[in-house]
Every structure is written in C-alpha cells, then in structure tokens.
C-alpha cells in the first residue's frame, strides 16, 4: 500500500477516482486485518469496562494505579506494607483502590481509622477464617466446621476470658522466672558476656520465655532446640506460603518447618498436656473451644500453631528495638536507671524484687520509651471486612460509604509518622513523647496521639495479649537497667550509638526486624557483638509482678535458649557503683515514705473538694456543655436553688433538675431537714425525659427517688401532681374585654421564664392528667413562667422554671449556625467548580460547532474550487458522516444513556465536575450529608416554633438569605431526584409486568392447542 500511495503522490495528474478505487480495493483485500483490529479494540473496551469495579459517588474517591487493572496488586506484592506509605504521597485521606474486578479501601487518616474501629459492621473475623487455612494448612473438613459453626466467635470469647488479671499474673510470673534464670548465667560470669548477634540472642531468649509461659513444664520447644529455629523460619517465609502456589516447592523451608512444629504441638495436645496447672489459661481455653466443636487432639495441634506465631512474631522484635533505642543513648539509660531504682526492693534475705505492676505508674519515662519504640517499629496493616453497607465520618462533616464485601486496609507505618499528630519530629525517636501532659493547651495534641496510636488495633478486636507483652518487655528492660550497664559495641569493641537498619515489613507481620536479622551491624558483612558489663547486684535477684514477688532467685541455668552457652573469654566486671546508687535510692524512698502518704491524703482531700464543687455547680449549667462559660449557659432561675430547672441537651432529651427536700437515705417523708444547712447539703436530683414520654413516666421516676409516706395504717408511695399556669386572662373579665381575642382560644407566647412576672395572687393553676405527653405539657406551661410539682405529704410545691423557645432550640440553633458557615464556604466552592465545569462543556460544544463549520468550509472549497470535484468529496463526506454516526452510537452504547444532547452534556459536565471537586477538595457526599442535616435541623426548629406559636426568623441563624436559598435549592433538587428515581422504578416495574403478561399470554394458546389435540 505504501508503494501505491507513493506512486500516486509522485504523479501530479492522479485523479481522485483512481485514489478511491485503490483505497477500496485495498480494504477489500485486507478485510481480515481490519476485522482483527476491530475485535481487539472491542475486547480492550470490554476488558476495561468489566475489569474496572463500579464506584458509587458516595464511596471514597478512586485512586487509579499507574498500571491499569493490576498496578495496585503488583505494588502490594513488591513493597508489602510499605506500598501504602508510597500511596500517602498522593495526599488523600481515604481512597478506593481498584484491583482486578474488586476494590479495596485504603485509609490514611487517624480519625477515619478510629471510626472504622468503632463500627461494628467492620470485622476482622473473616480474615481469621480466610487466612487460617493457608497459614495452617488444615483440611476442608475443619474449614467447614469453622464456617458453619460458632467456632470463631467462641474462640475470641475464650481468648478474652483467659486474659484476666490472675491469668496474666501467672503467665508473667512464668515468663520472667525463665528470664531471671537466663540472666543468672550472666551474673556468674567472670568479666564480660558477649554475643555475636544481639537480635538473635534476644529472640531466642524471649521465645523460650514466652513458650514456657504458654505451655508450662511440657513446653514442646524445651527439649528440641531446632523447633525454635523452625518457628522463625516459618515466620520469615510465611508470605510466600500464603500464596498457596505449590507451597512444598515455592516455600519449601516454611512448609516443612510448619510440619515439624505442628507434629510437636499435636503430640502436646493429644496427650492432654495443656491440662497441667502451670499451662496458661489461654492455651487451655483455645484448645477447649476446638475440642468442643469436635476437633481432635492432632488437629488441635495443627490449629494452635497460630498461638505460637501470634505470641512471638511481634512482641520480640518490639523488645529488640526498645532495648536498642534505650541502651544506644547513655544519657537516656542513666535517667531511666534513676527512675527504676526506687522500684527495686531488698527483702533482707538476699533477694531483690522489682514490682512490675508499679512500673506504669512510677516509671512514666520508661513506659513512654516503650510506646515510642512501638510507634517507630510497628508498620503493620490493619484489615477489616465490610459486613454491611456502612458509612464512616472524618469528624469534619465528610462521610464515606463503604460497600458490603470490600476490605479496608489501614497502614500503621503511615499513621505512626503523621506530622499533624506527632509533630515535625515524627520520624525521630523522642523518649518523652508519651509522657502525658495534663495541661489544657496539650489536651488536643494528646487526643490526636491517642487516636493515631494503632499498634494494638482497636474496637472489639483490640489485641488481647498487649498486657502480657507490656509486663514481659518492661520487666526484662527494667532488670537490665537496675542490674547492668549495657553498652553496644562495634566490631572494634568500641561503644557505638548507631541504630541498626530495619528491613521491610511483611504483610503478615506488624513489626519490622533488623536487616539480615542483625548481621553486619556496624560494618557491612562484619559481625558485631553486644557486651553486657555487670555493674553490681552481687545479690540474687527476682522479679515481682503486681500481685506479689515471685521468690525466684537467680540460679545457673545457661542462656535459656535450649542450647549450650558459648564459651567466652570475657564476662561481667564487678563494681560497687550501682550498690551505692541502690542504697541511696532506698534511703531516699524510706525518708519519703511518710511524705508520699501525706501527699496522697492531700490529693484525696483536694479531689473530694473538687468533686463537691462540681456537684454543686455542674447541675446549674446547660447540660452537655461543660466547656462553655456560665454566660453561654444561662440559668433560667438566676441562681435560685429553691426552684427547679428544665434544661435542654444537645439531644432531644430534656434535663429536669429538682431540689428535692429529702435525703436519699430518708425512710419517711415526714422527716424534714433540721436546719437550712442540712437542706443545702441535699444534692438536687437530675432526670432525663423525652418530650414524647407521658407525665406518668416522670411520676414513676420521682416516686422511685422519694421516701414513702405513713398515713397511720400503712406505708404507701406518695402521689405526684403536675400543675401549670392557666391563662390568667380567662379570670379577669375587665382585662379580657379590652382585648380582641376570642374567649375559647388559648393564648400562647412561647416566652416561658422570659415572660412578664406576675403576682402570685394573679396566678391561676390547672392540674394536668398524668397521661399527657411531656412535650405537650411543656408547650402549654410555656404560656407562664413556671409550672409546679406537688408531692403528697409535703406541704410545699416544687416550682420549675419553664424553658422558652430560645431555650428549647438553643443547641439546635448553635449547630445550625455552625453548619451554615460550613455550607456557605462549601457552596462558594461548589458554585465555582460548577461554573467552570459548565463553561468547559459549553466551550467543548462551541469547539464542535467550529469543527463542523471548518469541515463544511473544506468540503465547499474542495468541491467548487479544486480539480477533485464532487467525485472525491461525495464518498469522503459519506464515509466521514457514517463514521461520525457510528462513533456516536458506540459512545452512547458505552455510556448506556439516552441518545440526546442533554445526556452527552450532563456526562461531560459531571466528569469535569468530579475532576474539579477532587482537585479542590470538595466532597459531594459530605456536602449532601451536611445539607440534609441542616435542613433537618431547620425542620425540627420550625416544629418547635409551631408548638410555641412563635415566629422564627431563620435568616439570623443561617447567616443570611444566600445560605437559605442554597438550602432550599438543594432541598428541591433532592426531592426532584427522588421523584425521578421513583418514576424510573415505576416504569421498570410496568415494563416487567407487561413482559410477564405477554409471556403468560403466549403460553395460553399453546395450552389450548394441546387440549384440542388431546380431545
């Protein structure tokens, strides 16, 4: 074809007819090629349409991958947990990640993550079921039991029940006793103790300590040191095993390590060794749940490999980073030692104890360092499955729809490094970051820190083993601080403050490990050692949890890792330095003991005075708004404590505060306070009632709080009477005649306690039936300034100030004002985006008209002013027009909309709108929710205004007529869209009924013909 075209181009006298004939001939010869191209193009369109998941406009915005369809999947496999750190650079707090034909929600905001944790429609349990079979390799029969029974919720319930205080005490005691035995070998050395790899030493020591605490004296790892290595081989290669692609080949080491571990655990459970009294309660409860669902002992051993993995995979690397960050900073270690030494206790019999239970309270810097080490090292992924369609909010009015069946993933690596939560030094280790600052200026920052610390998950799936890990790790580090001088040494035996480089965090883990398991720390490919120099502690030492000392002294027991301790030329050097420090600290503690008692006593008295002051003042403030000043919470009685108050709350409930004249312990209503001081000490009674509840409900609440009366024959519950002011104009004919008002119509002012004050003689009271709703009673009582509550047997009535319309709607109007400011800001942004989108669409339409005009000019010129003439222009224009029609038809088929200019314009505008919304930070779903809530508040305030018969000027609370017009416009638009949706549903239903009727009609003749044949 190129040769033909070149030949014709070279011939200046070539005619248009010859060119067209050549072109048609080539197309006829190459029909198969064009058909192949058309099929490939159609296939690409279908793949793009069906492989991309549908995203609702209320869902989080779409974050497209750089490689279509599979880009996010490749990133997760390649970068593991670090992939979400890469996605954070796109500056989105939440996004929908399309992966093949499904989608995953990614969250990079602390407030949204807490909303996910609190939502009960988002659960971790499906992951426990789906990943369990790949991780543990059990058969389909067990999987069926898990899916068709209550095994998973029973398992979670058993775990939580096993982690109470007594069981944790026993586990901590067993684990720390093993640690004390291992450290005793260090104490009995000659000068110094060295280990070639500090991480492996900590890993092996704490693995044995943890398994001793879990399994008791029949610990499967105790007599087989290779099983401990298998546990960590299984943990390292688990991501490859989870893929499930021929695991015996692709994950050979992990696959066979799992087999050996499960065989040892199966032997443990087949012989019922978990029944031993020293075995942990969590191991007993988990095995009992499995056995109760018909799972054999061998299969229990297969399943319970998960317990071993969960107990060691994250706790031990956290301890390593905790120790590295502490002991690589000598000044910090010295400060922590000063903090720990007062906790060390001498028992007088050659035994030293550390009360682990007091570390949290008396060693705040040590606890802060532990949590900071967790923050720096925890980079895991939090996973939740959406069980039902639900909505989460970011606290700023934006809400996002999460669809049922989708997964939600949250990266701790991102949240633990957010600068808005942790400050500009979020990437650095700050020892006192978690020392609580109680001042008001730090309240917001402390709240953000709590929300952004997600190392242990949250909600009902909060990690149940966090307290065990806390005591185990802090006890170990506290013992080293109190008894040893730990200094990291490089390969030249010189002290170094270098922090080892961390490896990438696997998707199956939560805590990073040192690169190459700590090998090459200091110089590449050169092994270094950590030397532990003993400072003092010639006395045996033991550790004591909160419930009492363990009475376990140091004894020679080797390294405690199941292998022979390597011989070393250096051990620990003895010194008297720490003995003097301990003696000084203990003396200071003895001198300060009485002072502590006195401070505690003063603190108790001070707290009691504060509580009494709050009890006296807080009931007279507006409910639920303790932060506001007294001016913003106006007291309707102006401080008169002899009258009751009816206050509004942020909800629709009403708070009734009554100064009852009876003590709570008073046995008879006839007993009265002896003097005014005793009367003032009686705390008022606060009750919450709903406006739609009857007065009889309030009557029963009051009767439950007052003593019975004795009428001489028996004790009985006193009766309660509710009286409201009647219309005083009805009793004054002379005043009534001077006013133009019908006598049979009750007058309403809605002023309540704000109304004009009247003389007591001028007040006429009416008793109301107890079946009247509270709201109706309050509405009628608002005509006066107060209503009264009478108690049988008590000669004085309790007067209660009636809330006015302003009081009833106080919180609603405050919220409406706040929302109106937000609506005004978003309305301006939305109007600007809509204007730009419509202008772009009109320009596109104008450009199309200009293109058609240009095409018309070209056709005109070629036809009448060139030699080609109509012979060339006719087929070209025909083909161009037909191609345009076909392209437009395919486009409308693709968008599945009506064949109209309006549909095309709407799609063009909507796409441009969505792009502008996302670019400028406007969330349509949050806008709709905000407008809907604002209109709901307006409707509710109008309802109250109707009840009080007052005119409410909403423009004052909305901030102007512009906001009112926006809300009215959006309200009409939502109503119109709702009507259109209903019309479409009705039309679809009509078409469906017609189709069914036609189908039935087509079947009736067939039945008639069959009956004719039969006859």
From TrEMBL:
Residues 615-646, 722-765, 961-1015 are annotated as: Disordered. Keywords: Heme, Iron, Membrane, Metal-binding, Monooxygenase, Oxidoreductase, Transmembrane, Transmembrane helix. GO terms for molecular function: heme binding; iron ion binding; monooxygenase activity; oxidoreductase activity, acting on paired donors, with incorporation or reduction of molecular oxygen. The keyword Protease does not apply. The chain crosses the membrane at residues 844-864, 876-895. Pfam families: MCU (PF04678), p450 (PF00067). Residues 980-989 have a biased composition (Acidic residues). Heme binds at residue 463. Its cofactor is heme. SUPFAM superfamilies: Cytochrome P450. Residues 812-930 form the Calcium uniporter protein C-terminal domain. It comes from the Eukaryota. Residues 615-643, 722-739, 754-764, 990-1015 have a biased composition (Basic and acidic residues). InterPro entries: CYP450_monoxygenase_sec-met, Cyt_P450, Cyt_P450_CS, Cyt_P450_E_grp-IV, Cyt_P450_sf, MCU_C. Belongs to the cytochrome P450 family. This is Prostacyclin synthase.
